[in-house]
């Protein structure tokens, strides 16, 4: 006879706490090719109607070969929840504190993006710690098109 099912125990992994993390630890986010669904969903969610993102003929008249992805459309590719980071820290994750980004190159319709988070700093506090990760997005041409930083508040081991 099997044990009673406990929904709280149905999780990706045991939580890693602040002390379990290390500088240089990498968290890949699955690659994706940005096409109609991505552009349409972003436009619907953001309300951004500028033709540089939705009118290919306008883009070409401005010297772009294809639709230009909105900068925030590129930033959201680094959402930690799209990868394993929040599952690794599990219930020790308290908050997403902040993020910053620099746009280094264009991302066009049809580009494949490769997001990644890498821990760059760990600042211990009393019962918590601040985890800083470098966020990057490369394209299929191996060009770094976005870099930034995200910070998370994580519990120390009880």
From TrEMBL:
Pfam families in the record: MaoC_dehydratas
MaoC-like domain sequence ranges: 23-135
CDD domains: R_hydratase_like
Gene3D superfamilies, per database record: Hotdog Thioesterase
Alphabetical list of InterPro entries matching this protein: HotDog_dom_sf, MaoC-like_dom, MCH/BMMD
Protein name per UniProt: MaoC family dehydratase
